[in-house]
Prior knowledge:
26 strands, alpha/beta, 7-stranded mixed beta sheet, 6-stranded mixed beta sheet
Amino acid sequence: xxxxxxxxxxxxxxxxxxxxxxxxxxxxxxxxxxxxxxxxxxxxxxxxxxxxxxxxxxxxxxxxxxxxxxxxxxxxxxxxxxxxxxxxxxxxxxxxxxxxxxxxxxxxxxxxxxxxxxxxxxxxxxxxxxxxxxxxxxxxxxxxxxxxxxxxxxxxxxxxxxxxxxxxxxxxxxxxxxxxxxxxxxxxxxxxxxxxxxxxxxxxxxxxxxxxxxxxxxxxxxxxxxxxxxxxxxxxxxxxxxxxxxxxxxxxxxxxxxxxxxxxxxxxxxxxxxxxxxxxxxxxxxxxxxxxxxxxxxxxxxxxxxxxxxxxxxxxxxxxxxxxxxxxxxxxxxxxxxxxxxxxxxxxxxxxxxxxxxxxxxxxxxxxxxxxxxxxxxxxxxxxxxxxxxxxxxxxxxxxxxxxxxxxxxxxxxxxxxxxxxxxxxxxxxxxxxxxxxxxxxxxxxxxxxxxxxxxxxxxxxxxxxxxxxxxxxxxxxxxxxxxxxxxxxxxxxxxxxxxxxxxxxxxxxxxxxxxxxxxxxxxxxxxxxxxxxxxxxxxxxxxxxxxxxxxxxxxxxxxxxxxxxxxxxxxxxxxxxxxxxxxxxxxxxxxxxxxxxxxxxxxxxxxxxxxxxxxxxxxxxxxxxxxxxxxxxxxxxxxxx
Length: 642
């Protein structure tokens, strides 16, 4: 979905705007500045699809938004159990927002397990819509309810809306040739229709999507559309919902342009395609499916028309081996994985360091160690990216900060890899990969020029005057070696993992040569040109909050809260983690306190302390979920006052 925005950037106040009578109707319409909705149910209830459709319509309406899908690792977790609950949270607003929100204003609970798993996050006074048909005695006992929470008074502090979603859906589809079980599957569309009415979301896009998704099963498409419309009509006619809500488009939140809703993995895939076009190189992806990186493989496989070749290998090692071979052959080569896959790829990454070929290694981080938490998020692969190889094998490391920023991060990773002839690690994570936000589609002339020159002929003159090709003769500015495509006459050269002789690339066991090559490869990475880190410090603060990667949204939201409360705090965020920006040391020394929030046990803080001898304070979380803004604000306030 795309939408046009034609107003300058800005930000609205966070407040309820007011109420008005709906023209021609009998129900009140309340105008809000922002809403946080969480859909929750069994992993087979279609909560991710429901949330995705609500998000797409919200994006087309022009709201700013941020999402947080949260689902089990099992393909089909046990029905009705707490571990089997799947949820999708959406925060949308009429102004600039940064996170999926700390706590939902509305919880849609499709069964007792969904209610119990999520009620702890729901503040008093919030609305709860429950599917009463699923609150059977057996289902409630399965999750530890001794009595019905719908009747025992435990939900008295909330605005409870008991709705027999299953019964109403089956009734709405009684004229269709469906079994009861088949009809019940559309209850998520009934719930989507109800929420779409409550928040005045467009409906045309969802109906078009359903027709397309079930194009080969028109009866199923028609049934889902009927359930969706029945949910809308139920909201319109029932007495239980006396108020609907409007959240105006965020016309002041965005620069002028054409926007679409985009997830981090989709943005990264598009960024890789754009990089290959800007470099005028074919794109090759050698990969093995792994959560949460697989969507990049799926998406790139759809774009053969852009010269993209995707290879689903038999394992992680084969995937990166094929990618490195493609790099040797003159392609923009990529391999995608998550933390466990990086461990398996480490030897070939070291080979790429030795061969000095451009290779993008995309790590969509997840909870570890080992198999860990495949569908949860974490930032715990930073030290692995920095040091997870034998020998001195330096690799540039960059990290996007938002789902949309994954597009630009992919371009930047390609720039570094191509210009400096080196493998590059790109560290995204599950929160960015699966989350989504509006993205302004860039104009082609806004994209960087990434074109490269392959070696065409001899580049060195021997003592006897003979012209020769030296594969490790370096560019004096970048220290990059020439990129010679196999088959180019006269450019035959030796490759392999054994140490190279400077210049010639011949095998060398000479101690002095090894020392020189190790230091040269390190100097090449250290000398990569990266932008200075920017500091947001409008009030001359004494405390700096330093972040990297996906903590950008929660940190920025927390900083905004503190400043609104009169606190003075500075913020800086790192995209380039190796090498660090040249001005980072001076920035750190300008503050009395440096606080580094991370979704690990302090990996960036360890690097900062070691490199700059700054007593950085860590604030850490490794529970598989992103930080909450309120939680961070409280921790930062304590650091400021301490």
